[in-house]
Specification:
Layout (H helix, E strand, L loop, with lengths): L1 H14 L23 H20 L4 H14 L5 E5 L3 E6 L8 E6 L7 H16 L4 H13 L6 H18 L4 H23 L4 H21 L10 H13 L4 H10 L2 H31 L19 H18 L4 H23 L4 H22 L4 H9 L5 H12 L3 H32 L3 H6 L7 E4 L8 E4 L1
Antiparallel strand pairs: 1-2, 2-3, 4-5
């Protein structure tokens, strides 16, 4: 029974009282409250709050969680009554300072979208320090400025290798062989380097997606045209689907659906429209490549395999490929090493749950929703144990489940005048995407509920420790202790 006791102990560590609540629930007692009559100090605190929220919003965090972050940071320094408005690309905060003083207001525009998970984890760590330490706002501002302006922790070539490895893992996950994996790896490396160059010239991201879709589909047409002279056995649809999955992985689908579910419909619609536009650019690039291939006399075959396999004999390979896909995505987004390991476990869990669900004939959309819920739940439990924001684990974990092949099936059917099949394929891809985002949201909510400490369940509020100076006698050193 030793293994059983070990399992119970491990579970208790994950969900017990020592766990950290995933999001700010109640404002702590200020460790170092500022003077609300000092406009400069109030402005520093509000600047700190909106800049911490900026990092979260740029990384794809939902508007509700971003607003909670801003409110929590402001309340830490005594600005407990704040109205926060988070939209698609802006954060506005207004702090109430009493009936005799005008409110203090600050606003920040988010001009970028960042997939640097190291910065997200660094801001999360800084927020935890604000909960327990008396950090001066000036020092905290300097720290967050250093976080946002610091270079990526890995070299660009590491990111290139990670994106390429992700494409190769997706190709294996979809049933491709060594040749398909190699072609997907090289194609994705070209896509990343070309789009990196185009981004330096300021080309809008929509056109970068068009170029990426075109490059993803071109090698598939060439290989299929040379299959007989070179005696190749290759499925071009798998090469294209692997490239599409890589391009889809950067879209803020989870954040858009979370906004719609959690009460921020305006921001959710804006984010979802961005997802649709970028997906449309990717589809346009693939369609252009397929049309050129058909015009040159090398049309691709009409048969496109299904994205989901119900064979349990392939389960070990798919679980390993799913773990590798999530791991490479986390690495490509500059996640910390401990987060990369947890992301791999999350990706493996998602593929395992999905395949078991499909074996029970529950359907791809429902199966994907259940798998995403498991990813959000398990990732929410493990993320704090690895001191990593749950968003990192959730987005990485659902990457192997993205509907790249389903999207290609629908697109190819539409290009060949099979409207019913094409619309069905597109709606299937859309349903899978929404199921992924909704499942992750539900799983994260469940993780937060399970991990709520008993003290919070009793009082519905957290009592945070604060520091008090203790004198040890004349000439003795001042000591600080928590109570």
């Amino acid at each position: 029974m030793a293994w059983w006791q070990s399992a119970v102990t491990t579970l208790g560590k994950l969900v017990g009282e020592r766990a950290v609540v995933d999001e700010p629930v109640a404002a702590p007692t200020p460790l170092q409250p500022i003077d609300l009559t000092e406009d400069a100090r109030v402005a520093q605190v509000l600047d700190l709050a909106v800049r911490s929220g900026e990092v979260l919003l740029a990384a794809g965090t939902s508007a509700v969680d971003t607003a909670a972050q801003v409110q929590f940071v402001a309340a830490t320094y005594g600005l407990a009554r704040c109205d926060v408005d988070v939209t698609y690309n802006s954060i506005r905060v207004s702090a109430y300072r009493g009936p005799t003083m005008p409110p203090a207001t600050s606003m920040r525009i988010v001009h970028y979208r960042s997939l640097d998970f190291t910065r997200l984890a660094a801001v999360d760590k800084l927020t935890r320090q604000l909960r327990t330490e008396a950090i001066d706002p000036v020092i905290a501002l300097a720290e967050i400025s250093a976080i946002t302006h610091s270079p990526h922790p890995y070299n660009r070539w590491v990111a290139t290798f990670a994106w390429s490895g992700m494409a190769a893992s997706v190709a294996v996950l979809l049933g491709g062989g060594a040749l398909v994996a190699l072609v997907s790896l090289l194609t994705t490396a070209v896509i990343y380097l070309v789009n990196l160059t185009l981004n330096r010239f300021g080309l809008p991201y929509f056109f970068q997606q068009v170029v990426g879709g075109f490059i993803a589909a071109t090698p598939a047409g060439i290989l299929y045209a040379l299959r007989e002279p070179l005696a190749l056995d290759v499925k071009p649809s798998l090469v294209i689907a692997a490239g599409l999955t890589v391009l889809l992985s950067g879209l803020a689908l989870v954040g858009s659906v979370q906004d719609a579910i959690t009460g921020a419909p305006v921001t959710g619609v804006a984010r979802f429209f961005e997802v649709l536009m970028l997906t449309g650019g990717m589809i346009a690039g693939v369609a252009l490549s397929l049309r050129i291939a058909a015009a040159l006399g090398a049309p691709l075959p009409l048969t496109v395999p299904s994205q989901f396999s119900t064979s349990l004999t392939e389960l070990p390979v798919q679980v390993v490929a799913g773990a590798a896909t999530a791991l490479f995505f986390a690495l490509a987004c500059y996640a910390e090493r401990r987060a990369v390991v947890v992301a791999a476990l999350s990706g493996a869990a998602g593929i395992l749950v999905l395949n078991l669900g499909l074996a029970m004939s529950i359907g791809p959309v429902v199966g994907t929703a259940i798998a995403a819920t498991a990813v959000g739940f398990v990732g929410g439990l493990l993320a704090r144990r690895a001191l990593t924001p749950p968003l990192v684990i959730a987005v990485s974990g659902i990457t192997p489940l993205l509907p790249g092949l389903s999207l290609y099936r629908g697109l190819y059917a539409l290009l060949n005048d099979e409207l019913l099949l094409g619309i069905s394929g597109m709606m299937s891809a859309f349903g899978i995407g929404v199921a992924l985002a909704a499942g992750v949201t539900l799983g994260e909510w469940g993780a937060r509920t399970v991990r709520r400490p008993r003290m919070l369940r009793r009082t519905e509020a957290l009592r945070y420790p604060f520091l008090q100076r203790m004198q040890n006698g004349p000439g003795a050193r001042n000591l600080w202790f928590r109570r």
